[in-house]
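dumping these here so i dont lose them again. two proteins, back to back, each one seq then structure tokens. dont judge the mess
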Amino acid sequence: MRTKTNRSASFKRIALILPLALALIAPSNPGFAAAKKKSDLQILGNARAANARSEFLLQLKNASTRTPNLEYHIDPTINPALLTGIKVDTALSADFWASLRPIDQKVVVYIASTENFKFLVDEITPNSTPEGLFGDWLGHKYLQAQMEPHGFFGGGAPAFDKNDNPVFMVYAPNGQGLGSGFWTQTTSHEFVHVTQRYLMGGNMSPMLGWVIEGQADYIGANFATRNNTEAFASYWIQLIFSMARPDASPKVLGWNQKQFIDWFKSKEVTLAPEKAGDIPVENYVVGAMASQYLYGTYGYKKVNTYYDKLGKIMPDCGDGDSTTNVKCNPSRQKAFKEAFGVSMAEFYPKVAAHIVTEIAWAKKNSSTYQSDLLKIAPSPWSNAKPQPPYVAPANLGPISKYGNPTLEGRRGEPGSTQFVDPYPPNIAAPGRSCLTPNDKAILYGATMTCVGTTTAAKWTLDPGQVVGPAPKP
């Protein structure tokens, strides 16, 4: 999940204008050959990038055509053009991921203009669980929307509502340009997180930061430009150069292969969400290039297998702190090797070389394409037809909340002392890491204290306290 504030590339676009005289002469010249359409390989510059694009388009072509189960909460002031794009991409995303996540599981989608962000606060708050509102993240976004009403856009996927429905939201100013790839990838980006959460049993801790956001950014980039590879190339260049922003890590654009290898190794050490803070921009973009490498080298089936295997190791990763959940990283390594046939250590030099190549390609082609994607091709949903209303199949049985259900209240492997807690992710709960000793917290009416040192503190129930059941909707 990432908030955007009109993130644009910092480099200039140079329009290439054909001289008028040549334009007039060419049609009447028998020896003039019409320009041939470039292949994906010619546009993207290397076979792996072209193959990854081909894999996406094939997956899209073979996607389900059923109408998914979607419930919309729509701000009546939203720009109809924005609304159309969001609804088309939501339905298509659900169909795209239908082989991994049942499209009969309802997804609740909240849509609003940034100028009327309060609509999201008013609609989401009463339908959310306490953990869904943890940290007042929605309130913080509301304040930012008030400060930047005409430039603030993005989305979020705050887990499940009170009725156990997956939830995500999308917002943008009504004047948002439809030619911005950073905007047009937002809906499909957020739906990737809906799918990840389904596979992960509701707990994202098995995934490294670049694995979470890299997949969402790569799939989002393709969705936003699905009807034109040159549009993809334009946005891909813009995405890579977004790391040149002052609040990002501009030095990354000049790294060599070894520096990227070291970066990947450093990212294996993960912390619980309350310690980790926001995921930095390079996790999104370097992760997107890593996802491109995985899709282009191994294909969608093996990448899907990888995420499914990660979902099964949640008990080993707990709250995501790999320094205290000692089984987490070995299990991540095992899932990777089983899915792709190479170890992560063997993968790093190869993906690092690919990333160096992609950055060099982006620098070389930075002035080739317009940054406004609508100047390259029409928006991918310009001629989309609305799907018929959702109808549940007559023989539809119960749908599991998760693809890999959590082992609530159980222990891990035989002989293991690691307890898999039954509490929702990303909140204070007994046995989970905490930041400041002696801090207090409450869970379902039970009080807890942060006990231990600053490097190994855990939330501990106060004497006589028992965690009661979660509040009923």
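---- next one ----
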Amino acid sequence: MLLWEIDRSLTELTEIYGFERASRAYLASLQAVTSLKSLVLQLGIACEIRDKNSLLLAAGDTGRQLHEEHQLRRRAGLPGDLLDHAMLLDVFGIARAAAIVSPGSADADPMQLARGLLAIALARGARIFEAEAVHFDAAARSVGVVLKNGREIEARSVILATGYVMPGIVRSTVHAVSSSWAIATTPQPHNIWKDGALIWEDSKDYLYARTTSAGGIIIGGEDSEEVIEPDARDALIPEKSRLLTQKLAALWPAANLEIEFRWSGTFDTTSDGLPLIGPVPGAKGVYAAYGYGGNGITFSFLAAQLIGDLIAGASSPLLGDFALDRDGPPTR
């Protein structure tokens, strides 16, 4: 899901940081998805990328919160239309109090996208070393990266993009690790909602649904910050799959509930929904990109732009917004 909408609503971010900073993050995220789609087409990467609308569903009995969100988005110049219960039911066949439908998102095969980008990087002179980094030395004129096999790589700039596993030199008070679960149904291309819009729920208990190019339905969520160890996380796959199947039946009663795949994973989040992008305090020449939450690929593209520009000598107010040592709300 290449969503430009952020885990925290524009309303919530405005309450935390003010409208200017909140809208800046949303507009940057929208531009990141737009630019990423253009890059994929420009480079000719075959990754099943498809333009998609997003559908943000009300979680409660009224659409009041979404009405306020929609008004704030219009003020920020963000695209999207508010649907009441009757319109949502008529257009999408989904029975919720309200929804915001927005253009500008996409979906893609992430493995094909990653492989395509790596192949192009290699063709342009990048080198890949399969090794584990165990220590970083930023005291010298260059940054030394010590590998588990005893070798060392030196570079003028080092960017840490290691998923949810942070080395000890990176510290943040807004960062947290969370687990998530997902299921995928058997293909049912003639049995999906309008245009296979990317569905997510206006709730802190994250729930999302999308379709595959073959017409399967993927639904995920049931996130937990308490269960993050792989064995304990994976042991919950049967129970979480049952709950997700129930939620799919409630969301889309027409669905064929035969499950083809079920899985779990761990990812990093932040209490304000914004990424952690920029210099690592106290480690000259070391930069980091973490805290992507539900916007992994979108924020990774934004991180590449911001850090690349920073190394080249440019800056952006977004680097202050996304700073690793920023003060934010308490971790949820």
